Amino acid sequence: MIKVLHNGSCSKSNAILEYLDENGVQFEIINIMEDPLSVLELKTVLKKLNQPISHIIRKEEKLYLEKFAGKNISEEEWLKILCENPSLIQRPIIIKGSVAMLGRPIENVKFFIEK
């Protein structure tokens, strides 16, 4: 089953859920705003993404620009920051077994789900 790390106020995240639903793909929603990831869960997601933590940080987000831009922050510190501030995590993140991807563009999601 596909898992979707989701933020209900994100239009791209909502579009992915709509696509999955319309195409009969079974999925589980993990609302990261209501149920933030733990450090261990976030590390697991990063491993499945096969990407550095910088890949999932929303650098255009107001909170990032006001508090974190230009600062030298270690990966361990970022893990804690993202767990405490899930709005800074790129979304949606689609997880299928041992692999994951950022859920955009939607063409990539279609390919990911079919394989």
From TrEMBL:
Q: From what superkingdom does this record's organism come?
A: Bacteria
Q: Which Gene3D superfamilies match?
A: Glutaredoxin
InterPro entries in the record, alphabetically?
Answer: Arsenate_reductase-like, Thioredoxin-like_sf
The record's annotation in Pfam families points to: ArsC
Q: So what family is this one in?
A: Belongs to the ArsC family.
Q: What name does the UniProt record give this protein? A: Arsenate reductase
Species for this entry? Chryseobacterium taihuense
